[in-house]
Input
Amino acid sequence: MSYLTQDPSRAANAPTAESPESASTSASTSRSSGADEPRQDTSSNRADARLLPQTSMEDRAEAQPFPQSSIEGHRARFPALANKAYFNYGAEGPLPSESLEAMVESYRRLQQWGPFSTETHVWLQEELQQTRAVLAGLLGAPANSLLLTENISLACNVVLWGFDWTPGDHLLLSDCENPGIVAAAREVARRNRLELSFCRLSAARDSDEAVEEAVRALRPRTRMVLLSHVLWNTGLLLNLNHLSRALEGQPARPRLLIDGAQSVGVMPVEVEECGADAYAFTGQKWLCGPSGLAGLYLVPDLAHRLRPTFTGWRSLDDRPGRLAGQDAISESVPEATRESHAGERDSRSARREDRHSTPRDLSALSVAELHARRFPEPGAGGRRAGADPFREAGSPQPEGRGIPPCGGNQDREGGANPTVPGRNLASPAREESPPTKGAWPLRHAKSRARDDVRRFEIGSSAYPLCAGLRRSLKIHRSWGTPSQRYQRILKLAAYLHEGLQDIRRRHGADRLQTLLPRPPQSGIVSFQLPDAVHTDLVFLLESEGVMAKVMPGPECLRVCVHYFTTREELNRLLAQLEAFLTL
Output
């Protein structure tokens, strides 16, 4: 691949990040060349072209030429890449220094305003809204179909524990799933008396073989299939559309829950088009965001069927007019208070377009500007309370039946009855009328559960992580589009795979074996050294500044390449392997 110059006239005749010319040019380049240009196995890529995410019109429209020399300058934004060859993106991506600074600035801002204040609350809600919108754009999904979690394990637990299981149902996983996901599935199966089985995908050589193996493992009562989009140990990319179509013909119409840990950030992912009912993803790996921020996409009908296992204040809808029992207590509320809330509701739509037409960075706004933006002056509808930026973001709510209240004491009027100091709300029959001064009791005395995916979000989080993840995504976009980044990853993975095959030919098939016979359609290249102890090899590589990871089932060495991985790094790894095998 040869990156375009900034001159459009020269770019017209130059091989692009997705052009076949780049592969032939790369293949003719010597491995010892100093240019950072990987070779590409074009025949294998053509054979598996149907598996690759298609480039969207928007992606092509945003494509910009990037000079090859930009790689080194781009890598300088990631301090962890200095003085080492880093190949553990599938476990934890390096955090850009700008992302770290964005998080520090967020924490500093919180302390300047006061960690708990009206202005802080406004800002935190806007941070969540902006982050949800950015992730929705990344995944091609409506913002109201995404919930934010701390990690993929928690995201998968939302689906596993919230599903309407009955004893005897069947849950299918593969032998290539993360141990944390397997542990959750086993506990869900134990408590709900489910049948749990694992299809063998570790030996699959391509996606067709893997899908066929998964379909053979289905049973009449299979209710859910939980698989990884990219297998975390072998690097095999599954064709989710083929799998989804196969599931549609099954008696129980199994739901498809996908672990996207090794796909989001590697390739363009359109969650609404891939066939998954639920798609979990994280920001800490290939997106190079901070640990502690992940998400889950849910199709509307599944979102309405799932029940929350845990609830908290973020699960509740405290907007005026959504309070359980509000009508019953309205007689004890002063007339002036009721008029204030009525005026507030009347003026909400007039203020909506100005505030939430498009998410934007609020870091430059002062406290006074934020306060004025959220709370109008007296006479314009009164103090704004209980605003819901999620519903005002412009994306339509999914259709579906109403969501019954969740958690705690559930009755016709609403969900959990939170404990208010000095009040016993455990039983509606003994409930006392709230005091009439102020709006707080009216808003918070007895809130319903939300009727959207946010009812699965629980409580307080490390909100400055949002700024860090958004900055990381911005840095990736500054280098190229998702398709451009993915094409470079494919070429680097092919270069490494071919280098491993060269070593295999020199030292014998019994000394080194790649898990996949052809270059992967992901950023993961895994291989085995049958005569070696892989953990010892990892320690040896780390002593030479090369970071890789030992994977289980089958035990192998996993190397992850990103779009900003260099050929020099790959040659450094190959040289260390060559030296190890000649000992």
Notes: Residues 1-69, 321-367, 374-443 have pLDDT under 50 and may be disordered.
